[in-house]
């Protein structure tokens, strides 16, 4: 199946957070962890919500700053999750979703089972090698610098969704 065909069939979007929405750097200020997110990526999530797509997050991290930022967005929130596969299976079952209609974006070994079992898998250039070898698409933009928006825009393009 071509990349364009994979994009056209996507109706649900799932994301890891660390190393996808963030650049992977951790800044500690006193007792607080500071993370930054790209405004284009967050705008992409808002577009998903406006277009009424289902989307969510499966992450092994707590991601408290990110959770606060996106608390009004998304349909699925699995943070501090050690078993991403179990979370994914729960989403599939509870929502009656078809794996071939899901885009998953991740960068680590814990993402591999999901990346191997979705219709469209994407990652960032900084991902570990086995993930780079597995994914259907590797973004040109780096983690935390618009990579999420890049893949969303490609899906919108191939689905012929226009914002003009």
Overall outline: globular
N-to-C CA distance: 30 Å
User: Can you identify the CATH class?
Assistant: Alpha Beta
Order of strands, main sheet, comes to 5-4-1-6-7-8
Q: How would you name the CATH homologous superfamily?
A: HAD superfamily/HAD-like
Number of domains: 1
Summarize the structure.
The chain is of the alpha/beta class and 164 residues long. It contains seven helices and eight strands; from the N terminus they run αβββαβαβαβαβαβα. The model has no long low-confidence stretch (mean pLDDT 91).
Word description of this protein:
The protein has a single domain, classed as HAD superfamily/HAD-like (Rossmann fold), CATH 3.40.50.1000. It has 7 helices and 8 strands. It has helices at residues 3-9, 39-50, 64-70, 84-95, 112-115, 129-134, 147-158, and strands at 12-15, 27-29, 32-34, 54-58, 76-78, 102-105, 120-123, 137-138. The relative contact order is 0.21.
Topology of helices and strands:
Blueprint: H1 3-9, E1 12-15, E2 27-29, E3 32-34, H2 39-50, E4 54-58, H3 64-70, E5 76-78, H4 84-95, E6 102-105, H5 112-115, E7 120-123, H6 129-134, E8 137-138, H7 147-158
Parallel strand pairs: 1-4, 1-6, 4-5, 6-7, 7-8
Antiparallel strand pairs: 2-3
Helix pairs in contact: 1-7, 2-7
List keywords for this structure.
single chain; 164 residues; alpha/beta; Rossmann fold; six-stranded parallel β-sheet; 7 helices; 8 strands; globular
């Amino acid at each position: 199946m071509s990349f364009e065909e994979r994009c056209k069939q996507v109706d649900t979007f799932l994301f890891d957070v660390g190393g996808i929405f963030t650049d992977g750097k951790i800044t500690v200020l006193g007792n607080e962890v500071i993370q930054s997110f790209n405004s284009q990526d967050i705008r992409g999530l808002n577009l998903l919500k406006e277009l009424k797509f289902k989307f969510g997050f499966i992450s092994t991290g707590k991601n408290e700053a990110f959770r606060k930022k996106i608390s009004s967005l998304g349909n699925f929130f699995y943070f501090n999750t050690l078993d991403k596969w179990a979370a994914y299976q729960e989403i599939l079952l509870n929502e009656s979703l078809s794996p071939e209609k899901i885009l998953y974006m991740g960068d680590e070994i814990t993402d591999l089972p999901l990346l191997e079992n979705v219709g469209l898998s994407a990652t960032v250039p900084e991902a570990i090698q086995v993930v780079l070898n597995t994914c259907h698409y590797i973004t040109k933009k780096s983690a935390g610098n618009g990579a999420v928006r890049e893949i969303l825009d490609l899906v919108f393009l191939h689905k012929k969704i226009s914002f003009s």
